[in-house]
From TrEMBL:
CDD domains: ACT_GcvR_2 (cd04869). It holds the Pfam family ACT_6. It comes from Steroidobacter gossypii. The lineage of its organism: Bacteria, Pseudomonadati, Pseudomonadota, Gammaproteobacteria, Steroidobacterales. This is Glycine cleavage system transcriptional repressor. Coiled coil: none annotated.
Amino acid sequence: MQFIVISALGSDRTGLVYDLTRVVLDCSGNIIDSRMSSFGSEFAMLLLVSGNWHTLAKLETELKKLSDSSGVTIGLRRTDQRPPRKDVVTYSVDVVCLDQPGIVHNLAGFFSARGIDIAELNTRSYAAAHTGAPMFSVQMVVHIPGKIHIAALREEFMDLCDQLNLDAILEPVKS
């Protein structure tokens, strides 16, 4: 089994997901993981696809054709399956606050400085329900090394959130 990461970026339109996934299916690929979202009037997609060497070679050719015919920018990169992490505890981080510059940067800096891997990160801007105030939310999944004392980490994280006026939760991911 081999793996390829596919990134696609193009003008948002109905049928784009269908077109990309049709090529994957026609080439006998299997979507292992994916993220898809609209950003303004653009659409972005990331896929991890598995298959044998022939499947991946065919995908490279067919996705180039789709890119040329549709105007969607498609990037491909062969990869290996990530080995399971044994020495970490997985936590979720949820943050809500008034929108302000630097939120993601400050959160990423906090975790990076402690050797904590950010496995997933999603953000969203929206208007508060009753006031219309500009709000920002962050959802993260982080892998905390087993050697880190969780209670001390939680206290440091909450101190940072207090300094930045962020409402946050740091809790273990329940499987």
